[in-house]
Amino acid sequence: MDIETLNKLEKKALKKSGMDFTRLGVALFFAVAVLTFSFVSNGGVPNNMFLAIAALIGAYMAMNIGANDVANNVGPAVGSRAMTMTMAIIIAAVFEASGALIAGGDVVKTIKKGIIDISAFGGNADPFIWAMMAALLAAALWLNLATALRAPVSTTHSIVGGVMGAGIAAAGFSIVSWSTMGKIAASWVISPVLGGVIAAAFLFSIKKAIVFKKNKIDAAKKYVPIYVAIMAWAFVTYLTLKGLKKVWPSVVEFLNNIPFVSMEVTQKPTFTTALILGAITAIIVYFYIANKIKNKVFDDSNDGVNTLFTIPLIFSAALLSFAHGANDVANAVGPLAAISDAVIHGGVSTKASIPLWVMAVGAIGIALGLMLYGPKLIKTVGAEITELNQIRAFSIAMAAAITVIIASQLGLPVSSTHIAIGGVFGVGFLREYLHITSKETHSVEDDLQIIEDEKATMNAYKAELATLEKKDDKSKADYERIVELYKLIAKEEELLKSTKKHIKKIEKVQYVKRDTVKKIIAAWIITVPAAAIIAGVLFYAIKGIML
């Protein structure tokens, strides 16, 4: 039996190591292909080796973004079993790449969030190129470590830390815009709190409107179309603002060809325009869903209600992935585009156009990283923080879209990663609160009062028993009472014991795994300084090699 077990373990270990080797092989093949393409296609450019190495690092960074950051978009849907892991990876990979290629910006700021003043480089391209390479590699290494530790962290904060650290190493502390860094630090609190509050609010609202009702079928047919319509409004608004900036003029031109439609051509959509498009979509979705579920037969149970949110969850995962690809591809290709611009033009620019091949490196790298190494973080987000079902996952998706919309209009710095994870925290802690305060569960205060009453009753029984046992001339009735009192005292002791157990059980209920929460928060706090320190060390290493 022991030999059989050892053989099985050996086979599993060999299979796992074989899969790990295959993943590594595919990742290396992509990285080498990018390196070779960059070197060959830019053969006539001076210092093209710098650009080729930067492209290699950019490919590595893109794969790490795919492995770590994309989990936030599909993790809740997978954890709630609205879709399988394979389905989630395919949808996310396709829509991440589509978002990057279709709606990724033509031009990106070379310095993410304007956190350093590039005039400090004095127009000298070499230290600028070294700093960008160090920043990109540092962010990628930190993301790789975080993924290995199963800690979802912000890729934006990683590259911000990398740029800050490399900038300080290159030109001193005065190069950093500390007010901007203060806003970024504020997002560590703002993002998860906003995401958690909005997700918990939606979950509580759905529970009150549908789950807690006696007739769940009628309640679901009334309210599910409303909730899905709100989701459609939020996601169309979110996607219009965040994912269609590049193609917006083409979208307006197309809409203006429709009879009775006249829109002013602008470079990017306004908030009002996004809201109107969202509202129109929401109305259409409401009537479609209401008609769709009007005659639908489903169980009058929580599971039956949950099934109604499955399709909306799949759409939300796809739309979140598209918007993420359109926005966060800049984390991978922004510094790479800056290096490309500096190498080709021999100078330092605040903005740089992104060649198609550079955008493709980001898009394909994100999709590949997700497919090869994404499942670890998808499992963490979807199952290892709190247990999710479709309603909870729906609430998290809603929080992700609405928080970004609110924050962008108020000018608040937020992280999509922190929002999504904050949403998971929010629904988990709400579950704990509802458990403790539910009608079926006595509150701790009630149980403490019961304990006091039980103690008083038991002491009265014991006092009566002591009096009877001291009595010299006991009658038959006295003996019968003594036996009865022993039974009553034993019963009270058992009741007292069970009540104390009940209190401990209530106090110990934890729907959110505290160890995972602590690990994730710790990773969030040290992301910027960790990436900065790594970038500073790498800058000095690169400078030492080059000089």
TrEMBL record:
User: Topology versus the membrane, per the UniProt entry?
Assistant: Multi-pass membrane protein
Its annotated compartments are:
Membrane
One Gene Ontology cellular component annotation held by this UniProt entry: membrane
Among the GO molecular function terms of this UniProt record, one is: phosphate transmembrane transporter activity
Keyword vocabulary terms for this entry: Coiled coil, Membrane, Phosphate transport, Transmembrane, Transmembrane helix, Transport
Q: Which GO terms describe its biological process?
A: phosphate ion transmembrane transport
Q: Where are the transmembrane segments?
A: 21-43, 49-67, 88-108, 128-147, 159-178, 184-204, 224-241, 270-289, 309-326, 354-373, 393-412, 418-434, 520-542
Where does this protein have coiled-coil stretches?
451-509
Q: Which family does it belong to?
A: Belongs to the inorganic phosphate transporter (PiT) (TC 2.A.20) family.
Protein name as annotated: Phosphate transporter
